[in-house]
Design a protein that fits this description.
Order of helices and strands: EHEEHEHH
Number of strands: 4
Distance between the termini: 23 Å
Radius of gyration: 15 Å
Structural class: alpha+beta
Number of helices: 4
Strand order of the largest sheet: 2-3-1-4
CATH architecture: 2-Layer Sandwich
Length: about 110
């Protein structure tokens, strides 16, 4: 195994959506882990300064799952213009990298679909 480990970041308006997305990605083996936590945001939107409480999600996965996660987020995200950034890691410990690859591997996905 030697997949590149990446982290995708997005934010959602509430804990219910955070939990729903986290479970969706992990159960479907699109991510090995999703962390989410509350934040406060100040941003410019349609000419106004907005303030909101949100939840940030950090989605940990392999590079080959990126397209599926992006497509899923675009379909199910509640925001009109959801944040989606991708961080490519310069360093990941060997054990952690192995675990992420193992949990999100195509082989396991194929076995589960039989």
């Amino acid at each position: 195994m030697s997949q590149k480990i990446i982290q995708l970041k997005t934010s959602v308006p509430n804990i219910e959506e955070a939990e729903k997305l986290a479970e969706l990605f992990v159960v479907n083996k699109l991510a090995a882990c999703v962390q989410y936590f509350p934040i406060r945001s100040v941003y410019s939107w349609k000419g106004n300064i907005e303030r909101s409480e949100e939840y940030v999600l950090i989605i940990k996965t392999i590079n080959t799952r990126k397209k599926q996660i992006v497509e899923t987020l675009q379909k199910v995200h509640s925001y009109e213009l959801p944040e989606l950034t991708i961080l490519e890691n310069d360093f990941v410990t060997e054990g952690y990298s192995f675990w992420v690859e193992q949990v999100t591997s195509e082989e396991d996905l194929e076995k589960d679909n039989k």
